[in-house]
Amino acid sequence: MTYGPPTIVARIWTDSEASVIKSLLESYDIPCHYTSRLPHNIYPFAVEGLGEIRVYVPASLADEARRILQDHRRTYVHLRLVHGGEPED
After folding, report:
1. What domains, with CATH codes, occur in the chain?
2. What does the angle CA 9 – CA 12 – CA 18 come to, to the nearest 5 degrees?
3. Are strands 33-36 and 6-12 parallel, antiparallel or unpaired?
4. Which residues contact 66 (CB under 8 A, 6 or more apart)?
5. Of 14, 46, 56, 76, which has the highest C-beta tally within 10 A?
């Protein structure tokens, strides 16, 4: 099945949060991957946006993925230690 080009649905700063988002979206059968300009295991910091992690999903599922992330953040706000940024698209 083709879904279209990947679209950014979240911009975050930690590998652990990226992993949680990936697991959450995949639990809803939304394929997901994330990338960063820096390998965080070597450079565990952010410099002028270089450490930003971008979470991608297929374009046709982007709205659903954003809804799931918003619902999850709203429901589990008491568990949040960091604030994940919203995409600038």
Report:
1. 6-79 (3.30.70.1530)
2. 80
3. unpaired
4. 9
5. 56
